[in-house]
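Mods, move this if it's the wrong board.
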Amino acid sequence: MDYKGSLNEVIKKHNSDPNRGLTSDEASKRLDKYGKNIIESSNKKSLAKKIIEQLADPMVILLVIAAIVSAFTGDAVECAIIIAIVVINAIMSIIQEGRAEDSVAALQKMSSPEATIIRDGSRKKLKAEELVPGDVVIIETGDIIPADMRLLESSNLQIDESSLTGESVAVEKDFSKEFNEDVGIGDRDNYAFSSSIVTYGHGKGLVTATGHETEIGKIATSLENVEAKDTPLQKQLKKLSKLLAVLVVIVCILVFVVGYFRSEMDLLDNFMVAVSLAVAAIPEGLTAVVTIVLSIGMNRMAERKAIVKNLLSVETLGSTTVICSDKTGTLTQNEMTITKIYADGKEFEVEGSGYEPKGDIRDEKGEIVENHDQIKLLMTISSLCNDANLIREDDIYKITGDPTEGAMLTLSEKWNINQENLNENHPRLEEIPFDSTRKMMTTFHEKEGDYYSFTKGAPDVVIDKCTKTLVDGQIVDFTEDLKKKVLEENTKLASSALRVMAYAFRSLDSLDQDLTTENIERDMVFVGLTGMIDPPRPEAKAAVKECHASGIDVIMITGDYFETALAIAKDLGIATSRDQAMQGSELNNKTEAEIREIVKTKRIFARVSPENKVQLVKALGQNGEIVAMTGDGVNDAPAIKNADIGISMGITGTDVAKDTADMILVDDNFATIVNAVEEGRVIFANIKKFVSFLLSCNIAEVLIVFLSILFGLPSPLTPIQLLWLNLVTDAFPALALGVEPAEPGIMEEDPRDPRESIISGKTKTNLISQSIFITIAVLLAYVVGLKWIFPNSIEGAHTMVFATLITSELLRAFSVRSEKFTLKELGFASNPQLIKATILSFALLLVVMYVPVLKDLFEVVAFTWEWIPVLILSLIPLILGEISKVVRRK
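Not the wrong board. Structure tokens:
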């Protein structure tokens, strides 16, 4: 709270000397006391924690129990295979998340910033991490503020605090201001915050807080108390695991009871059969396939410029119902751009956005203006009365200095008016710097032996100081009517959320006079106005439109001003009226229930604090929404952490935001989120497909064995045949289903209900019906084998079951590709991976049946003409599944 009270009180509190700074000995003691000026990440998980998280998964626990049961029943092979699956799955997950962490680390700033300080009475450069409270820091244009500090001096000082407050325009600072009451972070004019950037002027500050005690550090610390939430997929897999566990126990009991009464096996053998079948009922490959498919999705997202740090977050995106987005740098470019010029009584449109000098200037009729003396003069003034620089690096344009002045340079370059050439031809001889009291800046130049003062500043101030203006290239009196017209234009531009700047000049006889504001900044000639804004990203509008078409709401949450936020939101299609916007301060006295109602209708929240952002994200979550929060600043980090899926910008994002987020946009492109949402939807749809596929196969296997025992038939499958089916035959098609292309219209559907089970609705109906179809086909094959084809060979009958079950399951994989589109509509070859997987699985079946050693191990016989009934019966589930789609649609 060192922004409050007098400057002398703060200096005394920190026992420092504004002129000599601290001594080296005292600084060393304070470094030991307060620690280094760094914010350490507490977000990185240890290897041990990652392993524990993998083993705590309910499905993994179920597999471990199955392995233990297998070991006790003497089936060492099955036990070893299940344990291997668990280990491989854990390793894969850890490797994938490690790759994401490496990608994030590569995005973090590698260089440690330096600060110019006063120690032992002299200036010196020091690493920012070595600063301590009480240090005196010199700050210049372009510097990154290294710690929180109370300003000791300020000269035309302006600081960009957008990463902390979300406000896109630099804040004017004044060391002489004193506050006795609490004021918001964005209004502490006598204070500078760590990680903000000096865009103009210079000053000196007394370090009052370092590391975790800075405003940025406090936000980072508060994030540690936010508990991580289960993703929708985690919740559904846990539910599925519990359901499977219950079903397995029921299967055990049923098979044991039925076997006891219907078969001739003794009690122990009957128990062994029941236990082995229960183990077979668990889809051992499910966890591994989910991990592999999420890993593939993770890699695909990385290719599309989105780094996902956690495997399960890949799918969460697909269920997103609301995207809460910061404005500055996320929906907008964070590059001020002049879009309007007012000169000679007319308004002109400026095309292009950002600092790249590309785009035409058009008149009121929409025709391109290639030359206009008054506009050219305005550009000359804006370029010469300017301390910024426009730099081109590898076809990317950047500015150093104030973003407002950068926009002026870009405007001039659009007409090839170059600042460097202007300064050579019209060198700056003197200047009256900008200050927050005058709200103007004036520079003095020579042109062909004549002297001029060029002034830019706040329109109301500049207009008031002008007595002349230009009309058709002629200097005329600036009458009240003409002034009124200009002021009306200023109001019009400002009401469109544009930042308006006015330009004027004055002809001087010489510079041999008192160059003060009283003498010079009067009786000027008014030239014109410019209106500028931080424009929306070109791709953001289309991305917002696609979100709405997908049933996803977009809410703008920004620290910027109300009118600016409203104008940008309307332009992007986020909102259509003022009724959908409100100030963040209005939330401060609201109850949780009231905020929950507010977020149902409001789509813009302006001038919000970090606490307001968290309130809004929590309220949306309490309303049952799956919330994605995007942002790049430190002020966004708490909300990012509280969201279901936190998204940070990779280029402009602060280290705290990146460290907190679940996903990082490498290209800072809002549209990339929509691509990621589509990828998430595809992944979840594919998870449903292979879960349905695996479970229908397992249920069919259980039904086949159970009904065989019930009807007094011998067990149709041996334990090793069941294990082969679960781990080998089923696994390859399941993996291929995991990379199934997006079904047509997937982004035109509403987001799925996160509470909805993976197996529900049509999926549940299909699963049950397909399980029954497979069971019927395989039992027919068993009866045919036992009664007619292999009446004297149980191995032959087992082979009929084994071959028919595998073939029908492989064909079933093609039908499960869609719940509504038939195979003909999808295109049989549109998933080549499935064709390859089917061929591979069928080839493995042939290997087992025709390689002598394996044939004996699996207790099967080689087929010749017997394939005919097998193939006919195997087609039943596929044909019935395709017919049911057509019937259901009609």
